[in-house]
């Protein structure tokens, strides 16, 4: 490695020249070597120059962590830690990274793209991958039903491993022994999680492992039912160390475009965005690389506390170990009311620690933690972070008598609109779409084929603490292709807050105005929509078609309503089912109209 | 908890009034409750007001981590992490914290005092303790020599524990299961590590543990020789989590006085100081609290890369699980010479990661990593931190031909003088004093009674990477009371760099000008001084007196010289030994004079 040319450090002087494209090759950044230090420095050098394009001529560029900039970062839904960075964009304005179809190959626990407090940044036309995956793929070659043991074949080049004390460990970049925690069986016929994955769940804590010939390992005492021969057991590390490295992390930013970017792996999500206004994803792909079943260790994309518009068009997300997209806010616990309009608050979920919940000027709602229903809206006047868990928040006013029970707060200023058109989310663990936002939501002309629910409109103040009772959602003309093959009551659409036993409905419904219309549902179980605590729900003109991709199952009525109001079920058709496809509703439902439906 | 009085936030307006004492009780800070948030905020409020004393009326003040300010901190010789802080002093000037004899009681992993970039700060007249110790004390009540198992009694209030999977875990503040790593047996007769501690070393990885009656636990398969009945097994956690919380951490500061401060516990050192000019410790104490054998988990005090004068007077450090004081710099590896006077460097020891090695203007030496001898001195012109491990350093000039072998650098500007007078360091694991600095060192009228060497003048570029070949050291009129009861060749004074097999002497000696004179050595083994690669060594007028505190042992000659030059051994007396107390020297020693010695 040679010292960077001095010209780098004089770029600031050029800032008045207007739009400029920099060919990175002119700065010693060329394929075939570790370019991390040079890229870090070039990015830093153009920090104060607006309207720059960094052009990477097509090729494979390597990024190693040894000389990478490192900053301690809290990353929502990931594990907070010192992060080594490939492209650390801090405060940049009008910057484009143009990959020209290049492959950016990362090594070890690096965060390829960090966008912090940037404005108008475009990432385009490149692929992100890692030299060593964050998960491992073990081919099941023998099984023994009687003692529930099985033998897997492991490619020692792809997934170098050791056995120690009866446990299986994997070697990663500069990590000698990475243990097994989460795991899931993948089906080579569907390129998806196997039907009824839970049956084959492996208890990694109890597993006993031994050598069983060349590249073969016997696994005992770990499963109730051994996975079928020919399937692949995916293992993906233990909690607090298996979500260290998302591919892209965006915070406190504005007007971000991700165009033609492909993510092939990830020690976390493909894209995680926090407190950012306007994000456009055009033709973004998440998919497993050649020879692999699985892509990212977590969601393809995830948005928390954003505003403006989140727009996804022509994207394809597949092979993830978690959801396709999740858009939500956060419920934060009021630890103590200190008087004089000041609250001591605590962030509720450990993977939200470090989140910027609010800033002065934001509108917030105070709500009961029991009913999750807001009772007061006000504005933040002072905001002081104490530590990753807690902050002090002063608001303009509080009710004369605060309720006695436990309270939470949510940030009303930071809920985005969501537009999803012509996307495909498939062959992944968990859901296609999770959305809880008070903004306008339009989900149309998409293809969904996920293992759990198709679209989950949830909101909960007890597990993930994802806020955002919806107010205006349109889901139309989408295809749901055999979603829910996790088995048992997974719906194309589930709209329902998640309650704990000690929580209860309050006065009024949680979600509002959901329209599910014109969708095509290919299904082995006939399920379409379950709704709970929704006021204003249209389920109209949808078509359910029986499909035999998975064994036909009767998992209950196609449409299930609990504590809903103002529901129209009209013009839906179901065909090809040999079991009854019906509608059920609880006694507390009001104004339910069902008419002109065929086959249900 | 109530909101802080508004007066707090108007303190800045008073900054022109000159010296001011604030009674913290006027700000709601009173004994008997968690005062962390209020103390954090009061400290922040006086940040820009010089010459303030925060006066804590005598009492016990509690500090819990829940509402404590948190910042990610690299702490030399500790484990870097997010630190929760009791007294976060950042940029303060002319500030005194006066405890009036108070007890500051901390809970959990907190760093009581953080002094970052402060100038003229005095900490006085208080005691630091934790509600739950960071180590555990297990009384040995039965032993069985044949199978090397033993039974310990554990006070479940003092050391709450559980047994799980045959392993013993301790519960700490909000930590359910803290495992065992390091351990050591303590002798109730001497209140010190037991004689020949290594015999009883426990392999915590192999140990099998089971219940053996009320509050009793049987430990098997862990030792070659079970510790004697009546001794106490001290266990102190596993690496990377057992050095999270030093009592006081000072960095990048100037003119620090610690006066009458007592430290009773510590999840790390009592005091760790980095890159600070002038530190005075007056009457500082480190000692185990009532009912305990052990105080801090690591050194009482430790100074890395400091300058000016470090002065310790009338201090007493005892019961630590590591050294009394250590003063040194750092050898840092040159990873690559990038040309144009720029070096890519890597911090060598994992517990120095994040160290500020240098800043522009500092004088540095470039040296061979094989001989540890410097060959070029120059000045830093640019310094850029890349990550906790690596930095870029540009210097004013380099030799025309850089040697081919591996290189290191050391910072010559940041070596302090050290003055130690009338201190007592005793009843601790490891050494009393480690010192490697190019400054002037005077160690006189102290009492030392440590388990390993009394004073170790080492320097190594292969294990701890502690730099600072000495140039002027006077050690006089001290008492060494049976130091070295770890057994086997522990000396009142060992002056020698630590070499790896692939390292070698270069041309010239490593240490220079060490005077060891007028000291009294009470000893069971007759050892006094070992010196290697020292030029200019006086061993004069010392008195060795046989003492039967431990079994008399012949561990070799009293004075051992290897590759030394210009040595005067004169006027020393030894009495009471039944074995020969002699002098040995290797053939490569030059100019050795020994005369007028009695009994050796």
From TrEMBL, chains A, B:
Right handed beta helix domain segment(s): 419-598
Molecular-function GO terms, alphabetical: alpha-galactosidase activity
Keywords carried by this UniProt record: Glycosidase, Hydrolase, Repeat, Signal
InterPro entries assigned to the protein according to its UniProt record, in alphabetical order: Beta-barrel_GLAA-B_I, Beta-barrel_GLAA-B_II, Beta_helix, PbH1, Pectin_lyas_fold, Pectin_lyase_fold/virulence
Swiss-Prot/TrEMBL catalytic activity: Hydrolysis of terminal, non-reducing branched (1->3)-alpha-D-galactosidic residues, producing free D-galactose; Hydrolysis of terminal, non-reducing alpha-D-galactose residues in alpha-D-galactosides, including galactose oligosaccharides, galactomannans and galactolipids
Domain named GLAA-B beta-barrel: residues: 137-233, 343-403
Record's signal peptide: 1-18
SUPFAM superfamilies referenced in this protein's UniProt entry, alphabetically: Pectin lyase-like
Protein name: Right-handed parallel beta-helix repeat-containing protein
Top-level taxonomy: Bacteria, Pseudomonadati, Verrucomicrobiota, Opitutia, Puniceicoccales
């Amino acid at each position: 490695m040679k010292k960077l040319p001095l010209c780098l450090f004089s770029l600031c002087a050029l800032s008045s020249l207007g739009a400029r494209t920099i060919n990175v090759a002119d700065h010693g950044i060329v394929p075939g070597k570790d370019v991390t230090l040079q890229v870090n420095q070039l990015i830093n050098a153009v920090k104060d120059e607006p309207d720059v394009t960094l052009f990477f001529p097509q090729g494979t560029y390597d990024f190693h962590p040894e000389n990478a900039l490192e900053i301690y970062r809290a990353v929502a839904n990931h594990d907070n830690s010192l992060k080594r960075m490939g492209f650390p964009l801090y405060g940049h304005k009008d910057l484009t990274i143009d990959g020209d179809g290049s492959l950016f190959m990362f090594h070890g626990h690096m965060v390829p793209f960090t966008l912090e407090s940037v404005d108008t940044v475009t990432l385009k036309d490149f692929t992100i991958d890692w030299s060593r995956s964050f998960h491992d793929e073990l081919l099941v070659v023998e099984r023994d039903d009687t003692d529930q043991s099985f033998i897997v074949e492991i490619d020692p080049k792809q997934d170098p491993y050791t056995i120690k004390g009866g446990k299986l460990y994997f070697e990663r970049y500069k990590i000698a022994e990475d243990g097994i925690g989460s795991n899931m069986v993948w089906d080579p016929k569907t390129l998806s999680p196997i039907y009824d994955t839970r049956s084959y769940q492996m208890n990694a804590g109890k597993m006993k492992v031994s050598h069983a010939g060349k590249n073969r390992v016997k696994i005992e005492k770990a499963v109730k039912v051994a996975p079928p021969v020919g399937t692949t057991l995916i293992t993906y590390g233990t909690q607090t160390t298996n979500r260290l490295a998302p591919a892209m992390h965006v915070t406190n930013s504005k007007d971000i475009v991700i165009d033609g970017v492909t993510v092939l792996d990830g020690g976390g999500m493909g894209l995680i965005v926090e407190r950012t206004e306007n994000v456009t994803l055009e033709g973004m792909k998440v998919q497993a690389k050649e020879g692999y079943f699985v892509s990212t260790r977590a969601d393809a994309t995830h948005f928390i506390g954003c505003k403006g518009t989140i727009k996804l068009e022509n994207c394809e997300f597949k092979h993830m170990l978690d959801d396709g997209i999740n858009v939500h806010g956060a419920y934060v616990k009021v630890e103590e009311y200190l008087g004089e309009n000041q609250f001591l608050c605590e962030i509720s979920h450990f993977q939200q620690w470090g989140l910027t919940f609010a800033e002065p000027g934001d509108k917030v709602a105070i709500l009961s933690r029991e009913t999750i229903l807001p009772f007061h809206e006000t504005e933040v006047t002072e905001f002081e972070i104490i530590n990753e868990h807690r902050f002090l928040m002063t608001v303009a006013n509080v009710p004369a008598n605060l309720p006695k029970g436990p309270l939470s707060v949510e940030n009303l200023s930071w809920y985005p609109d969501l537009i999803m058109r012509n996307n495909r989310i498939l062959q992944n663990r968990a859901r296609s779409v999770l959305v809880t936002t008070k903004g306008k939501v339009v989900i149309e002309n998409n293809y969904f084929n996920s293992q759990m629910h198709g679209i989950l409109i949830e909101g909960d103040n007890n597990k993930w603490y994802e806020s955002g009772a919806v107010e205006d959602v349109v889901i139309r003309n989408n295809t749901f292709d055999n979603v829910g093959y996790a088995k048992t009551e997974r719906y194309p659409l589930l709209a329902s807050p998640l309650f704990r036993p000690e929580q209860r409905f309050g006065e009024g419904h949680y979600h509002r105005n959901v329209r599910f219309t014109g969708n095509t549902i290919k299904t082995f179980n006939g399920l379409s929509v379950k709704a709970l605590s929704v006021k204003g729900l249209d389920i109209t003109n949808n078509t359910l078609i029986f499909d035999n991709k998975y064994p036909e199952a009767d998992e209950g009525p196609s449409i299930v309503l609990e504590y809903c109001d103002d529901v129209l079920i009209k013009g839906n058709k179901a065909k090809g089912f040999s079991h009854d496809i019906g509608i059920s509703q609880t006694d507390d439902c009001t104004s339910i109209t069902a008419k002109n439906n065929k086959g249900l």
